[in-house]
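[job 4471] stage=fold_predict status=RUNNING
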Amino acid sequence: MSITIKWHGHACFEIKNDVTIVTDPHDGRSIGLKPPSAKADIVLISHKHFDHADGLSYVKKDGTVVIDKPGSYEVRGVKITGVLTYHDESRGAKRGPNTAYVFDVKGVRFCHLGDLGHVLSEDQARSLRPVDVLMIPVGGVFTIDARQAERVVEMLSPRLTIPMHFKIPGLNLPIAGVEAFVARRGDVERVPSNAYSVSKEALPSRPKIVVLSPP
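[job 4471] inference complete, writing structure tokens
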């Protein structure tokens, strides 16, 4: 059974099957984008900064469960683990903590790294592995940059990597685009849409990067 991954810009994704999971909902207006148009059963918030949490009202509905801190959870049959990381290279001294999430949907293990600001420690990487689909920031400035993202990808060995948190048309944050991350890679698929379907059976046999189009 296929799972739809829809990118609403920045770090906001909608992962939809029987259950709809939304990550880091922005409000659109404050960052120069459209607000997300999803309605979530589960919302995962990596940290409380405006560009990752201020769109919560756009995606909530009756019964929505919001998770915003490390821990182990099970909601509507979805197992979720939040792992403590940091928004900077100083253990949160500059920009605070960040929660990276792994969650299983129909046998596919997703990992959303939020605003990860440092290369993972081996203990953190071990807590997140194995990873089938990785959503990773690559724009630098407030998060890891392209080179650091490459190192994190090597540590987590995902089957599918989806870059996020990079400069797109309209975004008013001073971060880099995606090109530095994909420039030296031959395993890149550029999708002419902000949506992509995956399933356990159809995961690529070799690691691949999928660049979704802005919403």
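[job 4471] summary: The two ends are 24 Å apart (CA to CA).
[job 4471] exit 0
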